[in-house]
Design brief:
Elements (H helix, E strand, L loop, with lengths): L2 H6 L1 H4 L15 E10 L7 H7 L2 E3 H5 L13 H13 L8 H14 L2 E11 L10 H14 L3 E4 L5 H11 L2 E4 H12 L3 H15 L4 H7 L11 H39 L5 E6 L5 H9 L16 E6 L5 E6 L9 H6 L1 H9 L2 E7 L5 H14 L7 E6 L6 H6 L6 E3 L8 H11 L5 E9 L3 H10 L1 E8 L2 E9 H4 L8
Parallel strand pairs: 1-3, 1-4, 4-5, 6-8, 6-9, 9-10, 10-11
Antiparallel strand pairs: 2-3, 7-8, 12-14, 13-14
Amino acid sequence: MSKENRSSRLSDRAGLRGSAQPTTSQSKEVTFLVGIDLRQRRRKEPQKAKDAAAVLDSTSQSSKPDSPGAEYPLKAAELSESASEAKAGKKEPSFSAQDSMAELRELSLSAGAEVAGEFLQVRDKADPATLIGRGKLEELSATAQSAGAGLIIFDHELTPSQQRNIEDAVEARVIDRTQLILDIFARHARTREGQLQVELAQLEYLLPRLTGRGLQMSQLGGGIGTRGPGETQLETDRRKIHRRIRTVQQQLENVRRTRAQQRQRRESVPVATIALVGYTNAGKSTLFNTLTKAGVLESSKLFATLDPTIRAVTLPSKRKILLSDTVGFIRNLPHTLVTSFRATLEEVQRAALLLHVSDVTQTHARSQETQVERVLEELEAGNKPQIRVLNKTDLLPTAIREKLRDDAGTVHVSSKTGAGIDRLLERMDEYLTGDPLRRVRLRVPQHEGKALALIEARTRILGRKYRDGSVELDIQAAQSVLAKLEKFEI
């Protein structure tokens, strides 16, 4: 590949072809997926190691049953214990190389790619120049060309030099997992805030990768006549990107200031905020719609939700809370994304309670929960009260579903059928302590229509008697509501 062609494709490699704008092209890009299984990290399973070195055909992979409800891999007892074990650190779950490749395949499909094939290599350690080694690189080049793949995606973060070396060898565009996630975020961002956050992450990712372009354009041989324009061009590009980063950061700071003002107004009224968190595609948006009837986008694609949504929910005690739907997390979530989406994820930091949503049909649900916990720790929200919501129970076999048992910190639900939603609402009521519930008896004259209307709308009525022109009520309500009814207490 010529240096000119390599330089002209810099923006393509960096994932900035459309900045943060959704791609409108209808044609799917043919891609080839590449993974690396480092021997000291993988599980000691000889058969898997033997199978890992093979080139996998995408058609054979797609023919495998994807329906997780067909055969649930965990016992009911293991399912109920998974959340507590992951949090307590009794078992340190990890993704296998095959699990990681399956996730990369789902990410590629979410980005609109057509996966032509997969390649997974077992190595003692990564090659510093090309990651997978020269011999396998030649094999990859021939296999990808025969499959007609114009794009190769690595399930591993590539250094700028590795990316250039691999592109030169395979004569195709090469991106890594981080760039793929950035591209998906760019496609799905709809609001101006979401687009700014994605653009900031893309710019920060591109900045260290400008060096290659400067080296290609410069003549750094030393001596007179070798100080070409490439070095100047590199510095110019860096200044432009730094200037744009500062502009985007300022705009996001304005967004954060506006959010802080809105949050301050909300917090002046005793209304708690509960945030949904969890691995991507765990069913958070479906659960959000079930609880709020908001009608936000529900999709099986990864990262379908980027822009936060907040809606009011009335709990069984008649207390009102605000429920926030947030972006899903994923294994090895790029740090630039966590930083860029900090304005959005502040809702998680300020929430009184977190609903940690997990997909019970996933074989590596424990590992996904651990990944979410790590991101929460990075957001300094790891110690917040949490309810583990094990979702998609409708996909489990009946025999397994009947053995599921909730506990103090875990609720099994189906966002699609509504099973377990009432129990979840009750548990949310129990966890909130900011505006505590209290049970009292009231005697309200029947002519006090305003007070009776408030009682009907904002309290749980446990008993009612009519006596001598008054109504005697046994109620349970939040302290903020009872303060308005204090004069009627018996």
